[in-house]
Amino acid sequence: MSIRRIGVLTSGGDAPGMNPCVRAIVRTALYHGIECYGIRRGYNGLISGDVLRLDEKNISHIINRGGTILYTARSDEFLSPKGQEKAASTCKFLGLDGIIAIGGDGTFRGAEALSQYGVNVICIPATIDNDICCTNYSIGFDTAANTAIDCIDKLRDTMQSHERCSVVEVMGRNAGYLAMYVGLAVGATAVLVPEKNIDFEKDVIEKIRQARLNGFTHYMIVVAEGAGSAADIAEKIKSALDLDPRVTVLGHIQRGGSPTGRDRVNATKMGYLAVEMLLSEKSNRIVCTQNGRFTDVDIREGLSMKRNIQAIEVDVLAAMTGI
Ligand code: F6P
Question: In degrees, to the nearest 5, what angle opens at C-alpha 13 toward C-alphas 121 and 186?
Answer without folding.
Answer: 120
